[in-house]
Amino acid sequence: MASKSLIEQAKQACAYAAVDNELKSDAKVVGIGSGTTVVYVVERISQRTDLKDTIYIPTGFQSKQLILQYGLRVGNIDEISSIDITFDGADEIEPSLNCIKGGGACLFQEKLIASMSKRFILVADDRKDSEILGSRWKQGVPIEVSPYAYLKVINDLIALGCQNPLLRMGAPAKAGPAVTDNGFFIIDADFGIIKDVVKLEAQIKALVGVLDVGLFPGMAEKAYLGMSDGTTKTLLRAI
Ligand SMILES: O=C[C@H](O)[C@H](O)[C@H](O)COP(=O)(O)O
Questions:
Q1: Euclidean distance between CA atoms 134 and 122, whole angstroms
Q2: What are the pLDDT digits (tens) for 177-236?
Q3: What's the distance, CA 232 to chain centroid?
Q4: Ligand 1 center to residue 92 CA distance, Å?
Q5: Is 110 noted as a catalytic residue in this protein?
Q6: Is 48 helix (H, G, I), strand (E, B) or coil?
Q7: Domain boundaries, the chain
Q8: Shortest-distance atom of ligand 1 to CA 105
Q9: Which residues are bridge partners to 224 per DSSP?
Q10: Domain 6-131+217-236 belongs to what topology?
Q11: Residue 192: which of 129, 142, 151, 139 has the closest Cα?
Q12: Whose CA is closest to atom 7 on ligand 1?
């Protein structure tokens, strides 16, 4: 069997460390994010024998399939009012743990689950480690929009200072735009270096037609970063 690339090893290391250190035996409800790094979170959880009664709340189709694939209990967001802890990936993380998410077109359900969680823990390899948002993730801020409103939102984003907002396309897997788990489109909006994350998030969220934006300010408590030398670095949000 081919050995894992260094990046995959880094993802696995940070995910395993996050689960080992943060997931306590008394956790009743656990949120599971989306993307390639949380696969290792679920893999590690499935190796535990002390979490028999725990239910797992997915953040989208991939996340739900992952929970089922590992034989864990899927919970329904309609049946719970709070989540003990959520693990999720990120596309860029700055030292204060503000982050960009949505590179894989999942962001609204992720933000919803994060907002219901007592603790929100990020797992990522060190390509996501950044001094300031917008300096490493160059694809732009992902924004989930109603298909009916996408052109109006693109024009609004230009008025907000985005040079070239792009409607994300589904090629080669799908002709036409990428469609999210909620039946919405994604616009990638490059705002360059983002100095005021809170303000930009509020401005974009206020646009009619926007479901949510992949800026997550002030939500994560801790980030586990898998480094290329095999170690894991932990970042803690200053409160
Ligand atoms: O849309 C996708 C999600 O926000 C992911 O959590 C994010 O893109 C990070 O994914 P990955 O762990 O694959 O880098």
A1: 18
A2: 999 999 999 999 999 999 999 999 999 999 999 999 999 999 999 999 999 998 999 999
A3: 19
A4: 10
A5: yes
A6: coil
A7: 6-131+217-236, 141-213
A8: 1
A9: 123, 234
A10: Rossmann fold (3.40.50)
A11: 139
A12: 90
